[in-house]
Request: fold
Amino acid sequence: MKKNMKNIRYFIGWAGAVCLLLPSCTKKDLAAINTKPGILPSATPQALFQMATMITQNSNEYFYDYNRFMFPVAQIFTNNNKGVAINTFTEGTSLSTRYNDFFSTSNDIKFPIGVGNYLTDAERQFNKLPAAEQAKKTSWVPIFHILKAYYAFYVTDVYGSIAYSQAFKAQEGIQKPVYDNQQALFDTLDTQLKAAVATLKTAAASTTESPLGSFDLYYGTKSDEVTKWVRAANALRLKIAMRLMKRNPTKTAAIANEVISDNAGLMSSNDDNWLFQPANAYFGSSGGNWDPFSNGGGGKGIKGTIDYMWNNSDPRIRLYYQQNNYSQDNITTAIAAGVLATGTTEPARRYVGSYASPDAANSPANGRLESTQKVNSNLTLDTLSSIQDRLISPSNSHTPGVNGTGSATFILISYADVCFMRAELAARGVTSENAAALYNAGIAASISMYDGIAALAQVYNYKSVDPAEITSYLSAPDVAYNPANALQQIIVQEYINYFLQPNEAWALIKRTGMPNASTPLVYETFKINGSVAPYPRRATLQYPSQADDNYVNEKAAIDAMVADPNFGVPGDNTGRVWWDMP
Amino acid sequence: MTQTFKPKLAFAMLAIVASLLFGLAASAQVKKTATGVIKDPSGVPISGATIRVKGAKAGGVISDDNGYFSIKAAPGAVLVISSIGYEDVNMAAGESLMTIQLPRSNKELSQVVVTGFGVKKDVRKLGYAISSVAGDEIAHTNTPNPINALQGKVPGLYMTGVVGGPQTSSRILLRGISDITPGANNQPLFVIDGVLIQPDVTKTGAEYGNDQDFGNQLKNLNADDIESISVLKGSAGTALYGSSAQNGVILITTKKGTARKGLGVSVTQQFSIDKPYGGADFQNEFGAGQNPAYFNSSDLNAHSIDSGGNAGASGLVSFGHKFDGTMVTDLDGRKVPWVAHPHNYLDVYRTGSTSNTNVALTGGDENTTFRLSWSGMWAKAITPTNQFDRNNITFRTTHKFSSFLDVDANVNYIISNTNNPQAQNSSSRSLFNAFVYEVPREYDAAYYNTHYTDPVNGGLNLTESNAYGNSGNGYSLSYFLYKLYYWNNHLGENTLRANVDVNMHFTPWLKFLMRANLFNTYSTQEQKFWGDGPGFSGVLGLSDDFSNQYQKDKYDFKSYRLQGLLTANKKLTSDLEGTFNIGGELYQKQQEGEYAKIQSLAAPGLFQLSNFTDITKTSFGENPNAYNYRNVSFYAFGDLGWRDLLYLNFSERMEYSSSLVFPNGTGHNVYQYPSVGLSWLVHKTFNLPSYISFAKLRGSYAQTGKDILPWIISQNYNAYSYTTVSGAPQSQVAFASNQIIDPSLKPQRTTEYEVGVDLRFLHDRIGIDAAAFSKTTHQQVATKTLDNASGAGSFYTNLGTVRNRGLEIGLTLVPVKTKDFSWDSRINYTKYTNKIIDYATTSPYVLLESQYFTEVRAYKGGAYGDIYSNNALTPFQAFDGSGNKMADPNNGKPVIYNVGGYWRYQPIKYAGGNYDPSARKLGNINPDFLWSFANTFTYKNFFASFLVDGRVGGKELSFTYKYGMGLGALKPSLAGRDKEHGGVAYTGTDANGLQGNWNDGIIPNGVFAQGQTTSVNGATVQLGGMTFADAVSKGYVQPVPASQYYYQAYGSWSRGIADLSTFDDSWVSLREVSVGYNLPRSLTEKAKIQNLRLSLVGRNLFYIYNGMPAHVNPEGIFNNRASSAFDFGAGPSTRSMGVTLNANF
Reply:
């Protein structure tokens, strides 16, 4: 019987072998049947890179992490009709969007995310190109690395340990990546950026180099595209060095001096700015997640900054804020409605900021400042100035039914930023550059950059900045460079320059403790019910579930961070990540 | 283009068939034709009896549906007439019509059943269990979806009705759940005349949404054409079907024409009505509001009584003023008495009806037969606008060209239309749900059923809809009615099913079968939604963006099967006989389709794709569930019989599947499935006592499997257009899948052992057929969730083992058998248990279903379908000072805590700790066992039968009950509302926050959580560990107002307690009763009618026992997923009663 069965199987095996000759069951034929039409078998590295670029900016992140949390916490604008909402501190945000943007593997056809995955795959697909092709595109992979390093830096900035060295390699068989601690990650990123700079410099000098061009949404239109990336990479190195200032001053100095000595590799004008300026209606659509008012109010400028800018005639005040609505026309209407006393006239100053601290904003003593007066169903007089919301949500309408047609700008690193970082390093004696010159150059660059951004966004009542305004501002009482007070002045200007970069403004405050309640630009201490609100400093983390596939590595990463007492418990966002030393 | 079906083989087959048909001629000798009719002792015609000329080697015929036959026979030849269950009769061929009565056989029953690949075999020879149901048992029930009528008729078959209308699909399981992937199809393969049909799991989705159950392909079967149904439960019977057969196979054989004199005409007319007779028990004593003690509106406008928002209740709660007939102002200004409308939930339903007409023509001689049949079925469901109609045309012919060649061909064309299946979730389209959730008991459904539209402007009647629900959110009955009548969802299916068998007889013992078949369903689904805004505009958009929408989906499904089978059947020695088959087949199926959707109709009600105004609300594209699949297989099978004592069945199948081939051509796509079975006729081996008339032992071992779904492993990048930085569209790429596939992925493999016994006693008056099996499925194909940081969301691999064990018993009894009267009885018992040996994910369990903090899970070491809830009651545990558990009389009682100022039971998720580990098990969805008891009586020309079936054990979470209780609609929520209903008197704050003396207090049976305090006269009192009753008696707390109690314990979305709405889904149903009468031939003959039969049948008459409280429908689960555990407004219980008239001419 056993032999019989064996014979039967043998027979069937032969029949199967014969069958392989038939077209009906060859693997090639079956593979074709099992392939979904419309699926691309491969993708080009440049298309994957472009997709990564497109998804770095995410409306959900603006809704949850920016408009609801970082802008208010950095005291750039309120998330409440007056002041910063109390629940910003009690509930906060997990800041999970940036993590998901980087690490997600979502394949949602409409809103794909996963910056890290796309960049890794871009490199993977590049490596499949023929060697001759690769030789003509030596700038590509370094550029992928720079964007990936930027995003990894951005995520670790508030997360601490993340997977990086072993991340995104499931296709290569690594399903359980080990997490890099921040110290190691900063080293890795710096090394990677340094290598990228070296390769890019060679590529820039090569006559056969074929750069990314139209697929590079940052610098693709510039003739010196590859050189621009060298400058962006160096600027990012400088930024990482700044974060290391307390933890590893030696390293800060080493990186800074190395970068600064590379004169050709430094951003030298606003043309070098690392910006993402999509003329795409998807970014900054009105009434949506981008809209600073979409959290049900807020979007008011903050008193400390507005007062400083008003007092020193900072031309950016009109680029950042709208005047309040005490216009003569509205006042006339209000008088007619009996809301305002006859004879009331338009105030000379219509840039008025809200107190940021919940206690101050809600204090009866500040009632006049923080109150509104309803005139009719269409008009409510509000003493407070809203920000120029089109900077973030350019399609917001000013007149009902007419959407803005401008476009948004997302600043990654600007020339002004580089000037201020260099000025700060000089003022601190880390480098020996001319702090005053860099400070002045930074201010001028910042003003003209925001002038351009505001024009592009079609902010309300846009009026371009006259160069004389800049000159005059540079000699304003609080602004004019004063060596005795230089560090504070530089940091205040860095802070003002970070108007559209709340993550950087927040990091600056965490790193330097400035501006603060006693700087000329007043950054209020947040108080709730008389007590100082503990200041949020990082993302809210949690222990992984035992059900997670990568539980061991995830837990090890958290455990290692918890070992540092400054980190606190994972769920407490007032704890500190590694770089953020007290 | 390799996507399309390879025509080469098809042409080759056709060429062979054509050459055989036209190239060969048959020669026939001239003989006379003998005709006759065959009847049983009570005069009922016997169909399927074999008539052959004695001494002839071939050329027998079979009697037709009406017992008629005709056969060519030389004058004086002797005809041998035989039929299973009857004695053989020899009779000389006569000149005129012969009437032949066959005496019933007292000898052992030689039952022939249809087995794998349609081969008919004597059950004696089978080493595995098989059950058979005659087509008439299904047809006489007049069930629109004929497969639904199998419930309770087959041991081992677990069917659960889904109440979505006549087109609905039951959940069908044979021998448990083999594939634990959430949503996996665990239903058996259906094989209809060789055509493979895998019924879909129908999507009546989640708690939200608007999914409707359009049923699957089984609804297009026509009961009138079914000759018999064989249920192959075990792997030994199904291994021949390989990767399609993991869940068993149900073989359906359709009717053939038969040789007879003249043309046989059979006409059957059936008509039945479906009557909703009850649903849940509603209360009819209290109207809308929170406190029975008062109206809070001075003008007695009934509907301004607390709309419920104040106390956090959603929708309208029915804890208000007692109905007392006071005149109040209704929504439209009418003065109406304050009374309940007890049948308001039935008022929106209607009496359903099903009509089925079948006309069948049969005819033929011994060389050629045909049967042409038409059935027209029209079913009107109890839910208004839900309709299902179907026309089937079937033609089947057999022709014998020569002793070498014969052909059996059939073609079926089916047109079916399904309109508006009843929605069955908590969506805004589920009608029944509205009555437990949305409207109070005073709602006059009969009136508003005709007043839900705006009579002036068209669109929704806003006055009513805003008042009878939370303004503008779509939760009002008018909105339900609007959707019911103004939102049309229609599915039209055109199905072609055709098969041709060509048999070549090389020698008397060697034949070759070539079979080619085609199955094609072309379906069009149209969703036509009128806008609900004024003038039927879509601007209102009360709850979603479906308003003013037209969507058209087209699907084209095709499958082909080409089979060749060489069969040798020979007596090898005097003791040894054998059958041996080898063959192979090519099976391919593919589906494609496209859709277009516009959501901005320019002219409302003009449903054309060109009628749109806003291009941004228009979409079209390929339908996502397209696929293409091919399976090529080769097989050898057969059996060996030794001295009619021992039979050995064996088979081996080798398969090449396309779905496991990667785009680069690699993959484990070739595999083999063996089977072996042994049947031992013990009563022939030993001299058993005479009261044992038959004894057979059988055992088998077999493997089957399941390959993966097509196209899963071939996903790289999707191309699409993305507006880039410049604002111009540019081609972009995105990952098509976030899954990485195990390169060594294999199909699932099921290994099954089965033993069985078939015993008959007292001349077959008592019979027991029992089977026990152990079925283990390895290599579960599963999706393991990865850390996203790895760059992939999941890993698709093999890991996991599930075991099902079970017992199936069929007991047949013939308590009475006389010449005129007989009584046949059958008892079925089905039990299976399931154990998850292992699974793929690293998660502690596989999540199968999830609704409202309650999950159906599969734990390693546990069984498929454990119900766990985070909203389960927290059992109290006392601790001593140092944190150790200690004994306490209150331990185990539900914990009570304070949320938002109200005392309520604490869901376990709020009891601290992590959610998951604290979720508590409430039970398992699977029944302990199923049983049925069927009886058939015949007395002369009368016959009667009844079928009772039941389910014991297994849990169901009823959302009908949960919300009906929470919102005060159901009767059990009367308890505690006032003094009469046991309410406790108290002085304090009622549910509306008003101070006073009330008597709607309820004292929850529970213990305060540790740390709970209350303030008494300014002093803080510790309540932790104290019972609620104690605290009330001490004056620390007041009783909970009834409306608050029920809302918090049952109705609250986030804190409603799952335990309180989870019940043993045990029931006993009087499933079927029928009586009939065959008119005596003496009466019918004058009308040239050879046979006239009248029968009455009632289905689903009532529940003799219902384990669900308040008569909630116990068979009301809302989808046919294997893991389904919930009902959402299941709909009323419905019985159907019908009449069937069958005449043969």
